[in-house]
Design a protein that fits this description.
By secondary structure, this protein is mostly helical. It is built from 8 helices and no strands. It is about 80% helix and about 0% strand. The mean pLDDT is about 90.
Amino acid sequence: MFSLQKWGAAAGFGAAATYIFGFVLLLTVLAGSGYGMADADPAAVVDFVISEQALMTIWYTIIYVLNGFLVALLAVALADIFKPHAPTLATVTQVFGALWATLVIGAGMVANVGKGVVAARYASDPEGAVLMWQIFSGVKNGLGGGNEIVGGVWALVAGVAMLRTAMMPKSLGYFSLVIGASGQLTLIPALNDTAGSVFGLGYIVWFVWVGIVLLVRKA
């Protein structure tokens, strides 16, 4: 039977896999439509999304919904490790992890529902459908992906807990602080793309690193 720590390790590896899947699909299949690019033609993006609804459902479900559930599980596992040594930090770590997970799952649900609404509208009112897509995208990006404030705060809190309790490698704790700082920098428009890339790629490494630590660490 898996312990909570081992479930946390599995969640870390799984969360990294959802990020890798997201980056690969974004840079290959979705790139041709301009999806995710600030200068993309909204009408072209909507045409692509409607013609590839099954693919987009898989995309949103994996990178948002599944990822959110895995983050929530990982947050619980980390809090369980920190609790005996820093109960307050453990609670804060779990709360911010759960908050981020909730927002990410919400973004995926908005995207999936919004995609269907836009597709239904498109046949009779293409221009209206494009406007609806822009509205849904704004809501989705506000919840998860447009900025990385909450995910960054979780990394900061987790990093502080790692350093304070010494229950995980100090290097991982400092790396968490770097990821957390990059998340806060996504608030600055001029730095959003660069900071967002550091945040996303950094979290892939972080998830795998945490997963390995939890897998080999003695309970």
